[in-house]
Amino acid sequence: MPDDLSAALQQRHAGRLGAVEAMTKSLAAARSEACSHAWVRDFFDSALLHARQCDELQAAGLPLAPLAGLAISIKDLFDVAGQPTTAASASLTDAGPAAQDGAAVARLRAAGAALVGHTNMTEFAFSGLGINAHHGTPLNPVTRPLDGLERIPGGSSSGAAVSVATGAAWAALGSDTGGSIRIPAAFQGLVGFKSTAALTPRDGSIPLSTSLDTVCAITRSVRDAVLIHEILAARRVAILPRPLRAWRLALVTEPLLLDGMDATVSLAFQRSLQVLRQQGAQIEEISLPCLQGLAALQAQGGLVAAEAWAWHRHRMQELIPMYDSRVSTRIQRGAAISAADYIDLQALRRDWIADMQSDLTGFDAVISPTVPVVAPELAPLEASLDAYMATNGLVLRNPAVVNMLDGCAISLPCQQPGELPVGLMLWSTAHQDDRLLSLALQIEAALAAGVQ
Predict the structure, then answer these.
(1) Which residues, other chains included, contact 88 with Cβ-Cβ below 8 Å and sequence gap of 6+?
(2) CB-based contacts of 113: which residues, under 8 Å, 6+ apart?
């Protein structure tokens, strides 16, 4: 099978890959042990039917749709017509079927995607670890063959990443509020692109934070990230044909981004910087003291807790026993945030964004580790609430900066073969998406050339 969605589409158009052939292999992966707990509900039969219809249309000489009947998974936050949407929570098991597709799902379906199922996730998307007490936690399918340990998939888009990593889907629709696309991508050696939030529609999805949620996707390559973003955002990406030496990258020296790296991440990150410098990238160390202002923005749970509480407060009066307590306690922090506090938070955020934009003027992107550690083992996080909370804070630390910035970011795999997956994150301010994707294509190629 082709390595990524773009290659599969090339083979589809050349008549060398049938939709049913591709779907049969995707569904075999979706049903495999590696995908255990990856699905909240599957649409396998309808996906295969759609693939068969695409082959019939192609045989009749009709043009292929952009996604040509290939498998795409949908996070269980997004409405799919005729299916319930439950955010992987027991508290929504009585949800009725959606009357219509959510906006992002509709765009994927219109582009010819074969929707293979609703993927598992952290309940209501409120954690970066991917642990789910109701549906089980999918194990990381990439790390287990390397060291035999049961490691977390990352979250909240846990099943989304597993579906792509195993070959069950060519790409996965998900959401990113503080890293929920980029964390599982980093932990599973995939590409996770968080666009500027305003570029993609949230209609027909269950919110976590209306200020920070971004609808986006996990893919196998940067070119696939470009392709899926163009569909989700209904816009064309303008790729800048600039060589690597023409890009100016900031390496922020503040401990907030670089502290706590384990040996595997530190080695991969430093090696990546060396490879990029050798290939001409301009990487300049800078201080970004306004990062210290994040603490005030996240006090008392910040915007996420306030906005999550607004959505959940009435439901939780009766249904709180059906919530995972690790999720409900974080949502309930929002009850202590007054309307005045919330208005102050929004004003503080606007000022902080302006300061960050000023300090990053002249740079094309910031480069940092996506997450400072490789995927942790699952058992200790299930056994200890303290370990769960500390690890959750650590894995969210770097990617959450970009959500607060209202910016765009992409996580690329930067490990060598045989090493545990490590993510390299490139990020920038709002509406620099095309510039960032253009740079990511260059860096992806440079890192591939540097593999020994």
Answers:
(1) 40, 76, 120, 121, 122, 123, 124, 132, 134, 135
(2) 67, 69, 70, 71, 72
Tell me the residue range of the domain where 168 lies: 1-290+351-452
- Whats the size of the chain, residue-wise? 452
The predicted model scores a pTM of: 0.97
- Active centre residues (catalytic): 75, 156, 180
Q: Token pair for residue 375?
A: 């995927």
In a domain, 370, yes or no: yes
Over residues 172-230, the pLDDT tens digits come to 999 999 999 999 999 999 999 999 999 999 999 999 999 999 999 999 999 999 999 99
Question: Looking at the domain assignment, is residue 223 inside a domain?
Answer: yes
Cα distances from 87 to residues 37, 40, 118, 344, in angstroms, run 14, 9, 9, 30
How many independent structural domains does the chain possess? 1
Q: Please, what is the Cα angle at 214 between 118 and 104, to 5 degrees?
A: 50
Domain assignment present for 327: no
Q: Please report, for the domain that includes residue 132, its CATH number.
A: 3.90.1300.10
| CA end-to-end span of the chain | 24
**Tens digit of each residue's pLDDT (9 = 90 or more) over 307-327:** 999 999 999 988 999 999 999
**Do the domain assignments include residue 253?**
yes
Which tokens belong to 349?
Answer: 């955020």
Residue 307 token pair: 């906005």
